[in-house]
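Worked example 2:
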Amino acid sequence: MESSPGSCAHDAPNASRRGSAYLLRMETWDTLRARRNVRTYTDRAIPDEDLDRILEAARRTPSSVNQQAWDFVVVTDRQQLVQLANIWRYAAHVAGSAATIALVMPTSEDRDERDIMQYDLGQATMSIMLAAADLGIGSGHASVDDQALARRILGLPEDRECPVLIALGYPADRPLAPIKHPKRRSFDDVVHRERWEP
């Protein structure tokens, strides 16, 4: 039977798999509550099929007028990951990741076009992070400051840029689990009904 990253063996609800990061698949709400920024990782490699599943989640992300103005470069080579960690002062965690996904978009001088593409990449970022969390894989993003270095390391053409990297790996501190009390503003503080009410 033909298969694809979108139809993996563990697509069935509550599927279990030997050697995987999970025994019982998370429900969507649990995954949303379990996802957190992870910047220290174990040295365990991410199975190819799980990486493909995460990338498939990115590919399926909605985009403005379905333009899909993105490409995804996944890096697992340790030397290349160490080099990528130099693209911004807050990207050191990339060096220790099991894999890092570079989100790539066309260069543009049009502000509206850039805003739309960056919004779409933001949606893809969340798709990647949630798909990873569902597999027990942590994630941590990093902006890209040095575009010339990113192009050289990733082999990008001059008409492409990389706004963000998403580092992936199994958490070194503690497994992902739903967070009961996240460090967030209170619900009543951020939610307004019908109109703004301070």
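The helical segments are 28-34, 48-59, 78-84, 111-134, 147-154, 187-190. Residues 38 and 139 are 5 Å apart (CA to CA).
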